[in-house]
Amino acid sequence: MRSELKITKIGTVEPAGYLSAVNADEFKHQLTQAVKNKNNNIIVVDMKKVEFLDSAGLMALVEALRLAKSLGRRLVLCSIDQSVRMVFELTQLDKVFEIVENRREIESAFSQLLAA
After folding, report:
1. Residue 99 gets which letter from DSSP?
2. I need a surface site. Which of 43, 44, 71, 94 has the fewest CB within 10 A?
3. Which of the four CATH numbers 3.40.640.10, 1.20.120.10, 3.30.540.10, 3.30.750.24 does domain 10-115 have?
């Protein structure tokens, strides 16, 4: 019998400030690298320091989500400020992205999976 041990690894991206057309390409590059990293099964985008998000920043997240899904990985957003969350709600992308309250919630969920 041949079996494979899969260990869930969490990669984290922590953007800060404004995610806009000015820096969307750089942000997209960071996300792409995190998603393509074979060690990461789950990529957490911790948005606690993000003050503003425009359509270019939002598209970087959407493209990263598409890539993650195509590679069989999860992209999870956490710690989103209320003004930034409103952008997700207005575009109805809050129904597309996996959004959790904070990083502890993610770590807790996966520690329970590993304990089971």
Report:
1. E
2. 71
3. 3.30.750.24
pTM for this predicted structure: 0.86
Residue 103 exposed, middle or buried by CB count within 10 Å (0-12, 13-18, 19+): middle
Contact (Cβ atoms closer than 8 angstroms) between residue 8 and residue 110 = yes
Q: Where would I find the H helices in the chain?
A: 24-36, 55-70, 82-90, 103-115
Q: Which residues of the chain have pLDDT under 50?
A: 1-5
Interatomic CA distance for residues 13 and 76, integer angstroms: 10
What is the residue type of 65? L
As a whole number of angstroms, the distance between CA 54 and CA 80 comes to 14
Supply the pLDDT for residue 30.
96
Collapsed DSSP state (helix, strand, coil) of residue 51: strand
The rounded distance, in Å, linking the Cα atoms of 93 and 57 is 13
Paired sense of beta strands 49-53 and 42-46, if any: unpaired
